Amino acid sequence: MTRNSKFILFFICLFLVSCARDAHLETPLERNNFEELTSYADVLSFVQKLDRRSEFITTDTLGISVEERIIPYMKISSGEFGEDRLNKLIVLLFAQQHGNEPSGKEAVLALARDFAEGKHTDLLEHLDILLVPQVNPDGAERHERRNADNVDLNRSHLILNAPETIALRNLFHTWEPYVTVDIHEYQPWTRSWIEKGYIRLFDEQYGLVTNLNTDETIRLFSEREFLPYAEREITGAGYTFHNYIVGSPDRIRYSTTSINDGRLGFGILSTFSLILEGKNARTPTEDLQRRTEAQQHALLTLLNFCKDKKADILSIVRSARRNLITMEDPEFVLTMGRQRDTSVLSIPVLEVVPVNDDYETGDTVIVDIENYYPLVVKEEVTTIPDAYLIPATEDRIIDLLEKHNILIKRLKEGDVYRGEYFIIRELRTIELEETEIIFSELRKEPAVHIARDGDVLVPTNQLHRLMLATALEPQSMHGLLQYNEFRHLQQTGRYPVVRIELSDVAGLVE
Predict the structure, then answer these.
(1) Rounded to an integer, what is the distance from CA 326 to the centroid of its chain?
(2) Distance CA 277, CA 184 (A)
(3) Does the N terminus or the C terminus of the chain have fewer Cβ atoms within 10 A?
């Protein structure tokens, strides 16, 4: 072989090696042998590379973080995204609202890469998928839970006090997906468990909507259809699984009923909404390969379920959303409690022995937890009026409603509206869900309101009907009155929001 032939053969080999590498695109995490988290710069670079590589993926901008980082998201579709929503489910998966919970981001990037390489194309016959790998890039760069303004993004979905959350909510309202999944990691080694001699073992936990005001059909479908499917598929792949539980060995329940988090914030809009909690670790990269692969498998499980149950989900969600608009005098649960039933929760745990600020592990054992509160029960209830009237002086409330894309009607000066005032007689603190809330003792009295310039009327026959009642009713355990941002509502006397009935207002809804 001549010298020139050797050089030609060498460059051909280099070219073939380069093509082979391009044939399988490694994620930044894989490229770093699962030893280094994907940086913000690498997230941006990688999603742009996927966009260039695949006809299925289009990258766009969700919004801008506090520290002015662009937040990307991907639209994945076999055709024009969203154009066939009569026959396709739109699914929204979003990760890393908490910056110190990285495996969801890594799993979403790996999932997107698989779509770019032509895998899972059967899913795209039935689903259009929105992927947000990193809602909180500022927190992720510091490996901190909160954003750069010290806001917990998963406690911001009602009050919208962070630009990242506002951007995520705007994405939802652009497409109104039928399914949403909020991807997190839980801490298995909390002190309350270690002091009892245990840490939790579950690789993955899916949590369902718990608020009793969310659509009952969706709740029952999630419990009876999705959970058994998820458990079978996830455990069958060699991972451990459970319905998401919170608390200590002294008292366990399912997670919050507050619509201020991502799962319930979208669930209250009659969405098949879930939270996914993978198992975190004591360091960011400890066992990161398994954590990421478990999260990716759990997400594929959800997507396959959506494919298999597409017709059911389309029917259930559409019906629930129609009911929000058409139901008459709907009951609304103001406060909810937790209750035990006759069952004992038996779960596998890892035995540990505390050693200074650390612990040593032992065997896997089964523990029985008797203080198990799986039931959410009604306490105070009311009905939802046809509309709420909000005076112009409550500009913070009006601004919040506009951020939520809620339909409002500006009133004409001098128009007269009849309805019902709340008179708060007393405010006291009670405990619900291991949290102190402000409960108002009140009475109602007839209202005659003469509109002033800037007053607004908010009809409740819209997608946000249950959210509106949650936010505006003064006795709501998750209402605006509970938040420091609306501390001015925490006072006795006339509550500023007026309940209005359509029979008293001709032509309210056009």
Answers:
(1) 26
(2) 5
(3) C
Token pair 């770093």 in the structure block, residue: 32
User: Per residue in 269-316, pLDDT tens?
Assistant: 999 999 999 999 999 999 999 999 999 999 999 999 999 999 999 999
Q: Which two tokens stand for residue 131?
A: 């992927």
Sign of CA dihedral 60, 146, 405, 322: positive
The residues that bridge with 246 in the sheet, in sequence order, are: 253
**Do the Cβ atoms of 197 and 352 come closer than 8 Å?**
yes
- For 496, other C-beta atoms within 10 Å of its C-beta total 17
CA atoms of 97 and 104, how far apart (whole Å): 10
Residue 17 has pLDDT above 50, yes or no: no
- In whole angstroms, what is the distance from residue 144 CA to residue 314 CA? 37
Query: Where would I find the beta strands (DSSP E) of 28-178?
Result: 57-64, 70-76, 89-95, 127-132
Q: Return d(Cα 503, Cα 49) in angstroms, integer.
A: 57
Q: Where are the alpha helices (DSSP H) in 286-335?
A: 288-308, 310-326
* CB burial of residue 358 (10 Å; 0-12, 13-18, 19+): exposed
CB distance 266 to 273 below 8 Å: yes
Structure tokens that stand for 89 in this block: 């489910």
Of 112, 124, 98, the C-alpha closest to 182 is: 98
Domains of the chain: 25-331 (3.40.630.10), 336-376 (no CATH), 384-504 (no CATH)
